Amino acid sequence: MFEKLKLRGKLIKAFRTAEIYRVVKRRDRTSYLFPKIHQIDNHHTYTRYAFSLLNGIDPELLSKKRWALRQVLGSNIEINGSLKNFSITVHHKSLPKRLNYSYEAIHPHIEKMELPVCIGQDIYGNSVSWDFADLETLLISGEIGAGKSSLMRVILTTWVKYTSSDELRLVLVDLKRADLGLFYEIEHVDALCFEAKDMRKPFALLRAEMYRRGDLLLEHGVTHISRLPFKLPRIVVVVDEMSIIKRETDLVEMIQ
Predict the structure, then answer these.
(1) What are the φ and ψ backbone dihedral angles of 47, each rounded to 5 degrees?
(2) Which among 213, 209, 207, 212 is positioned nearest to 253, based on CA atoms?
(3) 92-96: long-range contacts (C-beta < 8 A, 24 or more apart)?
(4) CA–CA distance, 174 with 198 (Å, rounded to integer)
(5) CATH 3.90.1070 location in the chain
């Protein structure tokens, strides 16, 4: 009971620090009305607070003042909800600073996917992945040194180990000449371009193939190659990095 009261006081302190409350003035007296706390669940791996905002409190404050909430509750918080009803989960563990890639370790988590993208683990050590076949477009962004190229190599390594060359074809562009050279002569790779001028021929072939596949879809009355009566390999174009290619307007038009 005392622990719950302590946690309740901590959440109210967080609301006060983040200025998430309603101010009521009556004559010379000012009162602060905080969100209504409904439940507190405290576990060894996390603490979850369930609460509702009072009418008149902007729910966007929870996002805008996230930094203030973290200062009181801890750095690893997760906010869920909308309009009035919300929960804040405070995770007691942190993300690992480094993960070693192991295809054997992630394979059980991706074996039912067509083109798995595994981006790492959550704070509890669970694999985080999704099927690229459901997305078809992926943008990796971040600061210099954040690990964008490392993640891209993880994705490509997983694909070439997971699929056969009959199922997946790759066109790789590495204008920095730094990150994709290790995939040279991999049987899945149709082209590996290190300069903008090298991209024109493979991208012209890609455009022709796109039109050919479009004709096949029309001929068979389907909207996706997965619905054709025969199997075609998926073709994935990987560009590192796109900001350099933007100077080549004709190539940008071909990519689009």
Answers:
(1) -125, 130
(2) 207
(3) 92/44, 92/45, 92/46, 92/47, 93/45, 93/123, 93/124, 94/123, 95/121, 95/122, 95/123, 96/121
(4) 11
(5) 2-91
Task: Take residue 192 and report the two structure tokens written for it.
Answer: 């590996």
Length of the chain: 256
Identity of the residue numbered 255: I
Note the pTM of the prediction, 2 decimals.
Answer: 0.73
Q: Name the CATH code of domain 103-255 (choices 3.80.30.20, 3.40.50.2300, 3.40.50.1240, 3.40.50.300).
A: 3.40.50.300
Domain 2-91 has CATH 3.10.20: no
d(CA 74, CA 137): 34
Distance, CA of 204 to CA of 193 (rounded, Å): 13
Q: Which of 18-22, 188-192, 211-215, 246-250 has the lowest mean pLDDT?
A: 246-250
CA separation for the pair 171, 159 (Å, rounded): 13
CA distance 244 to 183: 21
